[in-house]
UniProtKB/TrEMBL annotation:
Protein name in the entry: ATP-binding cassette domain-containing protein
Domain ABC transporter: 2-238
Keyword terms of this UniProt record: ATP-binding, Nucleotide-binding, Transport
Species annotation: Polluticaenibacter yanchengensis
Pfam families found in the cross-reference section: ABC_tran
Any one GO molecular function term: ATP binding
InterPro entries to which the protein is assigned, alphabetical: AAA+_ATPase, ABC_transporter-like_ATP-bd, ABC_transporter-like_CS, P-loop_NTPase
Length: 258
């Protein structure tokens, strides 16, 4: 579990995050949503240590991330996997070399042990026999799966995903969502996903945080979001025809079950 207490972050005179308190649950897909400028990207970067907040605390289970020394943070980062928005694969490395990179950086395993782990991870994201291909030789969806394999190759306790479906078609996005959801559940990972994809919200949103102007405006599940009476949240999400249809369908189902 990741716990955030009273977090503030500013850039100059502009306050981007204001009194953010929330929890990201273990074994769940925790989604951060919000419009552009809501602070969700800055919040994610604070969580992984790319930005330093002026006030507040971040706890990784019982560890206070905001007070850790540099060596302590380095040790914790070995428990953190990161799936970047643009995949961030090394173009000059093969799929196998990309996934093996964290093992080379953070472990003392033998080369045979590393390759065994790489193959296990590639198999888990349904990418057998892609080891010797380069990023330029595979599709965008395959690149995301390689990036996901790299993110989980160290068996992380915490997984962060920044817009994992960016640039993907709807069908491929569903494949990525299912992989993230299955891996989160299977390995009991605390997964935090920054997304604008409303299909993801409905399909894998175990715990959803809606940010509005740098402050947590609403929190709940994908079921809760349909019946929310929060005006700001409704204005944000129901611009999507998918969610409007989903709301109507679930309301009909709820009336039938009464």
């Amino acid at each position: 579990m990741i716990t955030v207490k009273n977090l503030y972050k500013s850039f100059g005179e502009k306050t981007v995050l204001q009194d953010v308190s929330t929890e990201f649950e273990e074994g769940k897909c925790n989604l951060i949503i919000g419009s552009s400028g809501s602070g969700k990207t800055v919040f994610l970067k604070c969580l992984v240590g790319l930005f330093t907040p002026e006030q507040g605390e971040i706890f990784y289970d019982d560890l206070s991330f905001t007070t850790l020394t540099t060596p302590e943070r380095k040790a914790l980062r070995q428990d953190i996997g990161m799936l970047f928005q643009g995949s961030a694969l090394f173009d000059s490395m093969t799929v196998e070399q990309n996934v093996k990179f964290p093992l080379d950086m953070f472990t003392k395993l033998s080369n045979a042990e590393k390759l065994k782990r790489v193959n296990e991870t590639l198999d888990r994201v349904n990418l057998k026999d892609a080891n010797h291909k380069f990023p330029s030789e595979i599709s965008g969806g395959m690149m995301k799966r390689v990036a996901l394999a790299r993110a989980i190759v160290l068996n992380p306790k915490y997984l962060f995903c920044d817009e994992p479906n960016s640039g993907l078609d709807p069908q491929t996005s569903m494949v990525i969502d299912k992989l993230i959801k299955d891996i989160t559940t299977e390995f009991n990972i605390t997964t935090v996903i920054n997304t604008h994809d409303m299909n993801s919200v409905m399909e894998i949103g175990d715990n959803i945080l809606y940010m509005y102007q740098g402050h947590p405006e609403w929190r709940g599940s994908s079921n809760d979001i349909i019946f929310s009476d929060n005006e700001k949240l409704n204005k944000f999400i129901f611009a999507s025809e998918f969610l409007q249809d989903a709301k109507e369908m679930r309301m009909i189902e709820a009336r039938k079950n009464k």
